[in-house]
Specification:
alpha/beta, Rossmann fold, DNA polymerase, domain 1, 2 domains, 2-haloacid dehalogenase, hydrolase, S-2-haloacid_dehalogenase, PGP-like_dom2
Length: 224
């Protein structure tokens, strides 16, 4: 069977720093974007742990309100709309297309697997410039479980007909790597600014995206 590489989107393939200008205008600080996304992930992890499913976009809005409260600023509806539009139009990292081309040339089936709702995922793929390399695009939203919940990866496997023994997750987040490993997938950690592996649960492969792609294809050759 053709090996499947599940691809995380936000920060892994798409560059969230494109949103910095919005946060500078609203908060006077580009670091506010990093804080917002950290709060978003914290909320997602918290509600996933509690077994309370929440839409990832709704969690993004809640994280924005929390950021405003923490900084003593009122968040306007216009800013929320601009942020929502910005997330849908995120550009790819400069090395994203190269990495995906290496994976495709090596025989991998590429499937996006994201916490984003399907409408957001579809918009991101349309504008990011690599949709022609993607074989499938799966939001975990219908499965009612966000990554890193095990059921999210099982949902991706079920939707695509893939099997754990010949599937990988490629991601820039340690929590995503941990969830995929717990679900039985092999894992590849993409080094992005500000991200680090969990020393207690390292990925099978780690490095910049093109290097990870080459190493992953080498592993596939070794498995054949």
């Amino acid at each position: 069977m053709t090996p499947t590489v599940f691809l995380d989107m936000n920060e892994t393939l798409l560059d969230l720093s494109a949103l910095d200008g919005l946060f500078v205008a609203a908060f006077g600080d580009p670091g506010a974007r990093t804080q917002w996304f950290g709060l978003l992930l914290q909320l997602a992890l918290t509600h996933t742990l509690l077994g309370e499913y929440r839409d990832f976009s709704a969690l993004g809005g809640a994280a924005l309100r929390a950021l405003g409260e923490a900084r003593g600023l009122e968040i306007s509806g216009q800013f929320q709309d601009e942020l929502s539009a910005g997330v849908r139009m995120l550009p790819a990292h400069p090395d994203t297309r190269e990495g995906l081309e290496i994976l495709r040339a090596g025989g991998a089936r590429l499937v996006c697997l994201t916490n984003n709702p399907q409408s957001v995922l579809d918009a991101q793929l349309e504008g990011a410039g690599f949709a022609d390399l993607i074989d499938g695009a799966v939001s975990v939203d219908p499965g009612q479980m966000l990554k890193p919940g095990r059921a999210a990866y099982e949902y991706g496997l079920s939707r695509t007909g893939a099997h754990t023994h010949d599937s990988w997750l490629l991601a820039a987040h340690a929590w995503d790597i941990a969830g995929a490993k717990a679900a039985g997938l092999r894992t590849a950690f993409v080094e992005r600014p500000g991200q680090a592996q969990n020393p207690l649960m390292r990925a099978d492969i780690a490095g910049p995206l093109p290097a990870v792609a080459r190493a992953l294809i080498g592993r596939l050759g070794g498995q054949a």
